[in-house]
Amino acid sequence: MENQGNAKLVRRATRSGLPPLGNYLRETYKFRTFALRWSAGERKALHFETFLGRVWHFLNPFIFGLIYFVFVGILSAGGGRGISRLAFIVSNLYVWLFFTTIISSAVNSVKSGGGGVLANSAIPRVIIPVASTVTAANYFIRSIITYIPLHLLAKRGLHAEMLAIPLLIVLTCLFGFGLGLIFATLNVYIRDVSRLLPHFLRLWLYLSPGIWEYTRVLGDGTIQACARLNPMFSGMTSWTLALGGSLDPTGPTILSQIGIFAIWSVATATVGFLIFVSREDEFAVRN
Length: 287
Description:
Structural class: mainly alpha
Distance between the termini: 22 Å
Number of helices: 12
Strand content: under 5%
Number of strands: 2
Largest sheet: 2 strands, antiparallel
Shape: globular
Number of domains: 1
Helix content: over 70%
């Protein structure tokens, strides 16, 4: 039991390990200002408030985009449609960086104990991954703004599908947040998870339509069908349609892909939250 003024918060042991979720969510909401302050501290620690820090954050995906453009666009595809393909790859890499930053930040926040917060206080531990998600969203929104000149230069055009971008930001946050909580919990028990995670995420990028177009797996073959089962197929396809319009008039629509991605996102966030909260009391002891 902990005292907070006149209020008392009681954690009762249950078979599942879950606290009363209504109380937990209300308690988490009380720390919303803390989450925003923590997010601001993360931005400062990563030097995002400095000019060079901002430049590197925006330049890093662009450099990787150039590398993938050379190897995938030129060496593999014999030219790759020039600036249009480069814009396609760079925009998708911004999205992927957004998604993976949420996951890795959640894992690191638990692995490091949140700078001692997890070990030395009784705050709801999910608040730190929440703060890291806010930080990643902040970075991404600014990245999208800096991507605009490349988008215009590539003549990718303006589309009604762009109206879905705010919803896609929310869904990407939910999906990354849920996976981040799952991996963070696993890392408490299996320490090598944090070491394997970057390799897993890089392989996942190659298997998702981020540096290659979703139209390549729209056929009826077994491999194509398996590729479409990838949760990030619907996610990256939705982003491609939102930023660049349809690549195939007979292909999937943005509404169908957002619907599939929404199911994955909400389900993953729910499962990740329940797993994390049911085990969070062990984090301080095991870290």
